[in-house]
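Hello,

Our lab assistant flagged a job as stuck in the queue for most of the afternoon. It eventually completed. Since we weren't sure the result was trustworthy after the delay, we are filing this so someone can double-check. Below is the sequence as submitted and the structure that was eventually returned. Let us know if re-running is recommended.
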Amino acid sequence: MAYQVIARKWRPQRFDDVVGQKGVTQTLRNAIEHDRLAQSFVFAGPRGVGKTTTARILARALNCVTGATADPCGDCDACREIADGRDIDVLEIDAATHTQVENIREVIIAGLAIQPVRDRYKVFIIDEVHQLSASSFNALLKSVEEPPPHVVFIMATTLLDKIPDTILSRSQVFEFRTIGTAAITEQLRTIADTEGVTIDAAALALLARAADGSMRDAQSALDQVIAFAGESVSVAEAASVLGLVGRDTVFDIAETVADETAPRVFELAGRFVESGYDFRAVCRELTRLVRDLLVLKVDPRRLTDPEIAADQERDRLQALATRFSREDLLRGFDVLSRAEFEIRSAAQPRYHFEMAMLRWMHLRKLVPLAELVDGLEQSPAPAPRNTPTPASGEAPAPPEKASAAPPRRSAPAVRSKPAEQPASATPSPEPAAPMPGDPKGAFLGELKRTKKFFYGTVVAQAQRIEVAGAKIVFTYTETQRTLADQVGTSRSWLEALAAKTIGRKMVIAVNQVAEATPAATTSPAESPPKVDPQPATLESSSEPPPPTEPPGDLDLLQEEPYDPAVAPVASRPATAKSVLASPVLDSPVQGDATTQKPARALDRPVVDGPADDLFSQAMGDKAVQNMLEVLPAEIKDVEEI
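-- returned structure --
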């Protein structure tokens, strides 16, 4: 007798022999026992999980001489012929061969009315039914829905989504699952012992993992390994004949990444090339290992699960799990998945693999953002520089006021150059060192240290910050409504911070006032700025005459410096930038424009607040309004913005 391969020799003959499909087999057994058998079945699932085998067992159960039974005898003519695929009343049809509607009409539809020759039921087993054409499916609709009482349809497919819903709604659908690694390993051990083959447990685990849930693939691989190694099979021989990546090799790669020994990556890659390994398979096995390590990090009790590790691998796997964090494993999984995809179409797979391993090493050095932020918040405030240490017993000297600040430079090509401001008008975002018993200074100092961005963008722009009893009041102008809303939104954590620094419960309040004059505007850290002793008034005795010539082009990005010796004031073109970037002009110049001095800028400090405050102050002056009457209409759009 010719040799029969293991996959056919060990094909299940009863429902109880089917591995890993308990839900399907138990449902079919109950349907037969209680006479609730459907007229059409659809068996869907991956390859090699027992779809066609279960269909044959169902056909034997229906046609066994002992009657419709869940446990066919296996000895009668019907059982033997169905198992061999030569029963005249059980037709196995390959849908890939009988695709056209004419084949369906000749093979199936034409023979429906004919009674079975010997068996109780005429069974049509259509394998890979998704290969049928749309016309063939339409031709089967009526037959599948209302077949004769002696006809049963069993359709098997690996692509359930390609079967029309009209067929599925007329059938009972059973979805077969992939078989677990432990179940495949146990079945391979039973086959090896029966066949008299000695095989390592590690080799069996390697074959089961390589089968990827398919019992037929695992049995075919075992048949090939036995043909190569004979009656004694080692893990090295199994990996060599099938081109599989051994588990020890995968552990070596993971330990190399954990040790961060980059030179060894190139050494291992060279060894893989010499062994003929497929780098995609290496990445796939590494991905499996990373997943197993992550499972152990989440649930250490899974160490004894045979799906995670075999007995001889547990110690090494547990030691390796302690060397990686969850973040390391998540990043490594992404790197390996991307590398497997890139290697598929790469001209040099080795290079992509080496770079992926080095990238994984580099990603392990990254610090999570949450830890970095926590470290910044918990770090102590830096000591002030250039501050002399007071002698023992002496009170610390109050901090000196800053000298006149130099004029700020304009931002490149986007913001106009502001005019120089007096020293008293420059707000100091740095709060002074709090004196003992100074709740405001303590609160602002802690706020500046822990929330620098919030302090600089919201708190430092307040007109006043006052501490009155158990209340801290932030004062903003009406144009600073957005900043006031930010304080209101952050009231809960501001109150918590104030209670922590001051030592008692504090309430945060927000006050909005009408637009104040620049002389009355204050910053959170210093008193109101002093005003020049001789300021020019905002209103002049008479309205300046409108210009006789239209203004020059509006150049918002460039402005030539004004030189009285070169261009007198009457001939200097007015630009939007010169108006908006300068303080309010004095009263109009009287007399001849060529002999008078140019209009002197109002010696009034400009508060360094939000841009909308500066713009509103400029637009509120009559001199600017007079200028806008003759400027193009587009400037008024800017004012509205």
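-- support follow-up --
The delay was a queue issue, not a problem with the job. The result is valid. The CA atoms of residues 537 and 586 lie 7 Å apart. Strands lie at 40-44, 90-94, 122-127, 151-157, 172-175, 198-199, 232-233, 464-468, 471-477, 507-513.
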